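Tutorial sheet, problem 5. The two components below are modelled jointly, 227 residues in total.
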Amino acid sequence: GAGVSQTPSNKVTEKGKYVELRCDPISGHTALYWYRQSLGQGPEFLIYFQGTGAADDSGLPNDRFFAVRPEGSVSTLKIQRTERGDSAVYLCASSLGTATQETQYFGPGTRLLVL
Amino acid sequence: AQSVTQLGSHVSVSEGALVLLRCNYSSSVPPYLFWYVQYPNQGLQLLLKYTSAATLVKGINGFEAEFKKSETSFHLTKPSAHMSDAAEYFCAVSVGYSTLTFGKGTMLLVSP
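Model answer (structure tokens):
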């Protein structure tokens, strides 16, 4: 079946611009996660959704970052007033539920470059 | 808070040699532990996970890992490396709820 998909695969923007990154989870998966992977680092948690609500957004670095999942499926990560330090690969993952041992399935990521 | 340390940002082995990638974790409660592999320009793929059922966990592609509570370790091994194993490997821990805390990763290089 189809895995997690993310669009766009690459995004180049200028400092100060607004960007939206989209994630389509595996059908039927109720939990959705966003991570950020900077060069040479492991992924870092940003936010996760159980259904439509953000269950934990403690990883969002500041109020320029926001994510939504209005219908409990597709999610959009929004970054306002982008900064060069936002350049990274943004990974989305989904799982059937939020039990601690549930396997998270990752998408290929969106590579964001802020000039 | 939990954390993961992966020793060695790069590990080089010859094809057919033993692969050993090290992972140590820190957690105040019993953890769940995961190994993921990332091939270039691809998403993370789960290799195996420890969920307290058995301390020796077998995964895909011939990999296995052993949970050692006394050493707070979860090292990944494979008896015989293959060229196709060249990739970046991430150890991750999850406690209390489902978000993952990852290590910095280890790049495995396999030479003929």
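Marking note: Chain B has no helices and eleven strands. Full credit if you identified this.
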